[in-house]
Specification:
The complex is a heterodimer of chains A (297) and B (293).
Chain A lengths: L8 H35 L16 H6 L3 H32 L6 H9 L6 H11 L6 H7 L16 H26 L3 H9 L4 H12 L1 H17 L2 H6 L11 H11 L3 H30 L1
Chain B lengths: L13 H29 L3 H5 L13 H9 L10 H31 L5 H10 L6 H14 L5 H25 L3 H9 L4 H9 L4 H17 L2 H6 L7 H11 L6 H34 L3
Classes of the chains: A mainly alpha (297), B mainly alpha (293).
Pfam family, one (chain B): BPD_transp_1
Membrane topology (chain B): Multi-pass membrane protein
Keywords (chain B): Membrane, Transmembrane, Transmembrane helix, Transport
Chain lengths: 297, 293
């Protein structure tokens, strides 16, 4: 639009208008996202306790943070949770997608069944699984009533195993979504390639291993990015399922941040933990988004 | 998901096919059983849960747990049931979704049809804002809501959800409008149509599908949010998710599992309903949120 030198005020207004309309929401994002991030980063270097305070402390909060045992637990838990969650969801999702892609009768019925948990709140999922996994009334009790007296499934009350119950509930919730991503990927594959491979005498197994799965690379990448992002942010599920317990055995960075900031009045340390969470997510998301945006150009 | 895809699947042997069906059915059970158990136990008297089998059908069918969860169960200290919190959630979700969608549509329109220098950076910044861990904004947000005098209110939550929903709404509309022929917009411009006129007359009429996707996505996300609700409105203005969690964890006396299950279903009902009615769009929204750019 090279009409900038036009004297017509209306035209100039028209050219200015888009930016004017975009400006307020962009300003909101700048302030409430990036301004707030800077503010939290700043707080992580201060002696804030119950309220923000501005006494500079340097890296003090970070070195304290890494000496706190609960943070150690939280990081370890996140590593266990995230890796199992990502791997299991991907395996189940890929398997279901491949199976559903075999001209299955009733696919239209199965697909929504696999996916509906994604519409639920993690609080709902957590509440439901909390009682299924409860040894007193849940699966263990049912097995006992069915005559399998020695059956034991008390993971949710067990300090060492409770984190795995979170994996179970989270996989239940999200694996169908991963299935949908892979299914979309499978359906996007060019049939000519497959026909050619079949003519060359490739077996089904070879077809999947050598051709189809490598072609699904973008779906794998998206699934990985989305799942790891969900894992790092996961807060509601842990709260609803175990409340971070027993003790703090299922603490994750998100619950750690909340409890240090709002209930233990260690805002500086809470801010530092939030900054570490952001950095972890940014390390995954920024390269991914950058690549996606560049591709589009 | 076209018909052509059917050829993707080469035929497997009969044993293989049986195995495939078996696995698919097992997984269907895995996904369905938890909800079925919730439903069964929400219409059972408490005694049958604590003294009986969770998987068995009720001997005495009762809707008392539902009535209790809705209107008399103890939430925190008040025996109000989930009803007031359900309306809190509605009061929070509806304005937030409407405002966000309007902003998103306009932003998407501008970022594709009125491009300017630096628009990719603007979009990139908005896009990244979808993926931040919200813990990073909790502390300043609590301060700002306090200063504005809307902490602990539905209005405060609306503001929060609008701000953090803009990114996704913009993403949806931008990707959708990017495929819309720019020539039409240019032609209308030459005919003298203005910025808003072009939007109303040319883009908006064809924005139906993406609007459904965007509304569903925002509705589900905002309805299901727990972190912001718990942080900024844990009292009278608490949304449904926070109230449900209080219901489950605050019972001082006997744990009324049947009421918890009924409450959980009540909290899930709106999003579930949306999913059943418009599942196709729900899936598309999820995909668009994951395959960005």
């Amino acid at each position: 639009m090279n009409r900038a030198n036009s004297v017509d005020i209306r035209t100039r207004l028209q050219e200015f208008l888009p930016k004017l309309v975009l400006a307020p929401s962009f300003a909101l994002v700048l302030l409430f996202v990036y301004g707030f991030i800077l503010f939290t980063i700043y707080l992580s270097f201060t002696d804030s306790r119950m309220l923000p305070s501005y006494g500079w402390e340097g890296w003090e909060n970070y070195s304290k943070l890494f000496r706190i045992r609960e943070w150690d637990t939280a990081i370890t838990n996140l590593a266990i949770f995230a890796s199992l969650y990502i791997v299991i969801c991907t395996v189940i999702g890929l398997m279901l997608a491949i199976f559903l892609d075999q001209k299955i009768r009733g696919e239209g019925l199965l697909r929504p069944i696999f996916l509906y948990p994604m519409a639920l709140s993690f609080i709902v999922t957590g509440t439901a699984w909390k009682w299924f996994l409860d040894p007193g009334i849940g699966i263990e009790n049912t097995m006992h009533l069915w005559g399998w007296e020695s059956f034991e499934f008390g993971w949710i009350k067990d300090r060492d195993m409770a984190i795995y119950t979170i994996v179970i509930a989270a996989v239940w919730q999200s694996s169908g979504f991963v299935m949908a991503m892979f299914l979309a990927g499978l359906r996007g594959i060019d049939n000519e390639i497959l026909k050619a491979a079949q003519m060359d005498g490739a077996t089904n197994f070879q077809l999947y291993r050598r051709i189809i799965i490598p072609l699904l690379r973008p779906a794998f990448l998206s699934a990985f990015v989305i799942l790891s992002h969900l894992a790092i942010k996961s807060y509601d599920l842990v709260i609803a399922l175990t409340g971070g317990g027993p003790g703090n055995a299922t603490a994750v960075p998100a619950t750690f941040m909340y409890s240090y900031t709002f209930t233990r009045n260690q805002m500086g340390i809470g801010a530092a933990s939030a900054v570490i969470m952001l950095m972890t997510i940014a390390a995954i998301m920024v390269p991914y988004l950058y690549a996606e945006l560049r591709e589009k150009k | 998901m076209a018909i052509a895809t059917q050829d993707n699947a080469a035929s497997v042997g009969r044993i293989g096919r049986t195995f495939v069906y078996l696995v698919l059915l097992l997984f269907a059970l895995f996904y369905l059983i938890p909800f079925a158990i919730m439903l069964i136990n929400s219409v059972k008297p408490l005694g049958e849960i604590t003294g009986g089998n969770m998987i068995a059908l009720p001997q005495d069918w009762t809707i008392a747990p539902w009535l209790s969860a809705w209107s008399t169960a103890q939430i925190g200290v008040e025996p109000t049931g989930l009803k007031p919190y359900f309306w809190n959630s509605i009061r929070m979700v509806v304005p937030a979704v409407v405002i966000c969608t309007i902003i998103g549509a306009l932003n998407g329109y501008i970022l594709t049809k009125w491009r300017f220098r630096g628009d990719t950076i603007v979009f990139g910044l908005m896009l990244f804002s979808c993926f931040i861990p919200f813990q990073i904004v909790l502390i300043p947000m609590a301060r700002v809501l306090g200063i504005l005098g809307i902490s602990g209110t539905s209005a405060g939550l609306v503001l929060v959800h609008v701000v953090y929903g803009i990114g996704f709404a913009t993403l949806y509309y931008r990707n959708y409008y990017a495929a819309f022929p720019t020539e039409l917009v240019r032609a209308a411009q030459i005919d003298g149509a203005g910025f808003f006129q072009i939007f109303y007359r040319i883009l908006l009429p064809s924005s139906g599908p993406i609007t459904v996707v965007c509304v569903i996505w925002l509705f589900t996300n905002i309805w299901n949010d727990f972190l912001f609700g718990a942080s900024f409105a844990s009292g009278d203005a608490a949304p449904m998710t926070v109230a449900l969690n209080n219901l489950v964890n605050s019972s001082t006396g006997v744990r009324e599992y049947n009421v918890h299950f009924a409450g959980a279903i009540l909290a899930a009902l709106p999003t579930l309903l949306v999913y059943i009615v418009a599942g196709r769009f729900f899936v598309r929204g999820l995909m668009a949120g994951s395959v960005k750019g």
